[in-house]
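Fill-in record for Exopolygalacturonase-like.
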Amino acid sequence: MARTLNILAAFLFLLSASKTQAEPGVFDVTSATYGAKPGSDITQALAKAWTDACASPTPSKVVVPSGTYMLTEASFKGPCKAPIEIQVQGKLTAPADGGKLTRPDTWVCFEHVNKLTVSGGGTFDGQGALAWKKNDCNKNKDCKSIAINMRFDFVTNSTIQDITSLDSKNFHVNVLGCHNVTFQRVNVTAPGESINTDGIHIGRSTGIKITDAHIGTGDDCVSIGDGNKEITVTRVTCGPGHGISVGSLGRYPNEEPVVGITVKNCTLTNTSNGVRIKTWPASPSDGIASDMHFEDIIMVNVSNPVLIDQQYCPWNQCKQNVPSKIKISNVSFKNIKGSSATPLAVQIVCSSGIAPLTSQCSNVKPTITRVPNALACATSL
Ligand SMILES: *[C@@H]1O[C@H](CO)[C@@H](O)[C@H](O)[C@H]1NC(C)=O
Ligand SMILES: *[C@@H]1O[C@H](CO)[C@@H](O)[C@H](O)[C@H]1NC(C)=O
Ligand SMILES: *[C@@H]1O[C@H](CO)[C@@H](O)[C@H](O)[C@H]1NC(C)=O
Ligand SMILES: *[C@@H]1O[C@H](CO)[C@@H](O)[C@H](O)[C@H]1NC(C)=O
Ligand SMILES: *[C@@H]1O[C@H](CO)[C@@H](O)[C@H](O)[C@H]1NC(C)=O
Ligand SMILES: *[C@@H]1O[C@H](CO)[C@@H](O)[C@H](O)[C@H]1NC(C)=O
Ligand SMILES: *[C@@H]1O[C@H](CO)[C@@H](O)[C@H](O)[C@H]1NC(C)=O
């Protein structure tokens, strides 16, 4: 009996081996079916491989083998029939001229996918140098939108790991309306002078974890916008960049509360801020930012290591004398160590419009060198 079964198994194996040359469930863009080749544009091949993989009733994997490929744009839409992985081993390069994109604000986008894995050790190269020179979005409210390297819109139960976002034209990674997504060992690299190149920006999402990331860029390493809950940032190195920030909040009407932020075991080097919470004055509606905890953080030559700024108003785009209506509460800074590049190590500029303020400063025990009155903040509240 066992013998017959073995023979049957062998027969079935041969049968399946003869029907598909490739590993089942694997959609390799360089296979004969899709025909992508290193050095050429793989936009069509990748789109087709995704469509086929997404329609697969069993778990599937789209593979981009090592090599450098041009990618004009990509829109990976779900829902898919089963868990799906996209393994990028090679380097994908964007057009340097963002004018070629169908959606000028997006290079690569994942939308409405559940159980997505992005992996492979590869690089998404946004070729941003040209765009940074023209970007005036830091001072012009009506500036043209510029491409974000990778968008995750309404992605759920997913893992993004072992990839690098390089030289994005705008934000590197934008997370919107996502639930239960882990970013691990994701690197972000762009020059310190590149404009608006936030590393990972999170908006209106819950259960997002960022861990073991190395982020060096021209704007915030991680920025957490409105409507976020249960966000955890651990073992992230940041620098160059503008630090890890909650906000800015209170710029637009009807923003949603930010609740439950943990930033732990991170190292910031040479950044213009450490950990900060920023809210605009003259916010159009009330807002809430609470339960935010910053712990075990090392600052190396950071310019504003700990900062709560409720008068955040870059380039005077607001009425600075009208207080912020964002209520900040249950905030702690614990075990923040290192060196400050400026004498003002801990700065808490709260809103005069909300009293009493419950920000907790008493847990700050900075072992900050070169600062004579590092603990002044702890006694002033
Ligand atoms: C989060 O996603 C992972 C991976 O898909 C899954 O195993 C886990 O059950 C999800 N957790 C929640 C709370 O939904
Ligand atoms: C995410 O996973 C959780 C737990 O397995 C599940 O309840 C939820 O429906 C999933 N989300 C989606 C959009 O499928
Ligand atoms: C991310 O950067 C770290 C430190 O430089 C490196 O060890 C790791 O291999 C990088 N990961 C990827 C996916 O390139
Ligand atoms: C912090 O990170 C370091 C190095 O990655 C690790 O050795 C240490 O266990 C971590 N500590 C905590 C509390 O996670
Ligand atoms: C910090 O930045 C300065 C000037 O930009 C640079 O010379 C220095 O090497 C950087 N230090 C570290 C530790 O990266
Ligand atoms: C403060 O935040 C922590 C962590 O999110 C939470 O467990 C705790 O209940 C909050 N405390 C208050 C007084 O809201
Ligand atoms: C410290 O930061 C300041 C300001 O960014 C920079 O000019 C200086 O070179 C940095 N020093 C080191 C030792 O990295």
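KEY FINDING: Confidence is low (pLDDT under 50) at residues 1-21, 355-381.
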